[in-house]
Here is the input.
Amino acid sequence: MSPRIAHSAGRFSVAWIPALPLAVLLSFAAPPPAALASASPDPCSEPLAWQVGEVDERFGLGAGEVEAALREAAALWNDAAGRTLIAVEEGRGSPVRLVFDERHQQIQELLPRKERLDEMAREISREQVRLEEEQHDLWVSQQEHERRLSTLERRQEEHDRQVEYWENRGDATEDVRRELRRVADELDRERQAVNEEGARITERAREVNRGVERLNELVEAYNQERRSVEAETRASRIQSAHYQESRRSMGRWTVSVDREIFVWQFNDREHLVRILAHELGNALGLDHAAEREAVMHPVTRGAGGQAAAAGGADEPGFSVEPEVRLHSADVALLLARCPDLEPEGR
Here is the structure.
């Protein structure tokens, strides 16, 4: 892409640069098999208790902050159900563990580059708006300059006819000759002013062209950095969290069920809430949702669309609201799991 602006103020355009969706494979823990979903305690009839387990200090969050995020994630399902399905109690319940390893480190190293790309995209957008405004102002100036030049040419033609007329008559008085000289001097001054104005417009057009060239260079730098980050992102696509459960049985009877949620990576607090909500949905025995906006989609997403679909396909055009909320598909899955619920608003 190499737009150019002619001195006659032709329009130009620069391709829109979208914010880069940093694709990261987040949570794709499969829900427990249907055959196991009926084991005691049944979340449809008895709340599942959860608590915050160990939290690696390298995440930069205290246990209280993680518990607040866990309560927010649990409240999504409890509010949808109209009663408590998930209880968060300190010192009692299945643990949520934040385990720091190279997965979080890999993404944290990429996030500053992604933020830089977002800033570059904003800079490109601002520069494009500025150049479009300058181009419009330049076009207005050129139109006014052309009108002024056209008026000057008509006045010059009229003056030339007057000079020729009196030269042919040969009897011009001193007053006539004085008036012709006055008009000639006025036309010379106007012509000089118009020429100076034309030179200024030409220089402005050159400056706009230089601005377009700088913008093109910025776009190219953005595209190169984006391709580099995308390549590294695909190479380091990871799983961010996992729900697991183990059962001890005696014959046909389930003696106990141990549940755990492991979180290895998240981008920010809202992203952590969304991950926890997804894993709690897995604990409730919910299937995955096909709708990309749903919490129970196979991939949980942070604000700005930092995600990749299950199987690794990028989704560059997708983003979510910063506030975490359930989608109607999530509520439908909850009702399919617990048909006796009476969610609020039904």
